[in-house]
Amino acid sequence: MGGRGGAGPAFFRRNRTSADTDNMRFNMRFLATTVLLWLAACGFAWAQGDAARGGEKAQVCVACHGADGNSTNPEWPKIAGQSARYLFRHLQFFRDGQRVNPLMNPLVAGMSDADLHDLAAYYESMKVSPGAADKNLIETGRKIYQGGNPESGVAACIACHGPRGNGNPAAVFPKLSHQHALYTANRLRNYRDGAYTYPGVEIMKSVSAALSDEEIEAVASYIQGLH
Ligand code: HEC
Ligand code: HEC
Q: Looking at the chain, which residues constitute the CATH 1.10.760.10 domain(s)?
């Protein structure tokens, strides 16, 4: 009767389930190890910048990032309200050619660490401008942000970037709240597709490895409205 047919799929499913679980355990273990290495690497000596001096040095940034750190072109990131630690780290990457971008690299090429600390302090003190999520994407986006994708092994964004997308300055997990969806989607595709070679990129490479293009669009839109 249905005995054999019923046992087959059940056996198959049981195997599938344990293989999937092993896979996910591996992913999560890998991620946990990577995060520990990341936190160890981020324990660098920290010098506080001077926001007022940063404001003077920011004249060359206004054209693209806006007078208040909020760019209007959605391919260019909003940097207002981002943590100084994350800003400084990435400004160093641009200056030293480790994060490659033809617009950013030449602008900061001649700057000292002190200049970059001042710029970072200045932009941290600004306020990010509001954005909204696309109503058609918000449900899928929220699911991924809050729960990841257990089937494909995508980790939940909320674990590191927080329920309101404010990140964690001490751990140098960046703030995501109200970022342009297009910039966020470009970043996620770049992480996934291996476009970056700067230090510490492994965490997001692992997080984004199994994200589909549709999931990226949805979660990026959700983040644009998140606060
Ligand atoms: C000609 C346009 C332009 C100017 C001027 C410019 N930027 Fe940018 N900036 C960009 C673009 C484009 C990106 C995104 C690069 C990428 O996708 O990797 C970016 C990225 C950044 C990031 C990374 C943000 C993140 O969330 O990872 C920081 C920080 C930054 N810019 C700071 C500055 C500062 C400080 C100045 C002035 C010294 C400046 N930028 C001037 C175009 C510009
Ligand atoms: C285990 C911690 C962790 C998890 C989980 C995580 N992130 Fe991240 N995320 C980071 C770290 C660390 C960085 C900084 C990486 C770098 O320097 O490029 C980052 C950077 C980013 C950036 C770049 C921000 C910018 O300003 O350029 C985006 C976008 C992002 N994450 C989105 C997500 C999304 C979407 C998810 C869920 C699918 C997620 N992250 C899950 C730790 C995490």
A: 1-41+131-227, 51-124
| pLDDT digits 0-9 by tens, 86-102 | 999 999 999 999 999 99
Q: What CATH class does 1-41+131-227 carry?
A: mainly alpha
Q: How far is the CA of 106 from the centre of ligand 1 (A)?
A: 11
69 Cβ below 6 A of ligand 2 = no
- Maximum distance among all Cα pairs of the chain, rounded to whole angstroms: 82
Per residue in 67-80, pLDDT (tens digit) is: 999 999 999 999 99
- Residue burial 128-151, b: 16+ Cβ < 10 Å; e: rest: beebebeeebbebbbbbbeebbee
Enumerate residues lining ligand 1, CB below 6 A.
58, 60-61, 63-65, 76-77, 79, 87, 90-91, 99, 101, 103-104, 107-108, 119
Q: Which CATH class is domain 51-124?
A: mainly alpha
Closest listed residue to residue 201, CA positions, set 213, 211, 192:
192
Rounded to two decimals, the pTM is: 0.91
Does residue 155's CB lie within 6 angstroms of at least one atom of ligand 2? yes
Task: With beta carbons less than 8 A apart as the criterion, state whether 178 and 227 touch.
Answer: yes
Handedness of CA 39, 167, 137, 76 (dihedral sign): negative
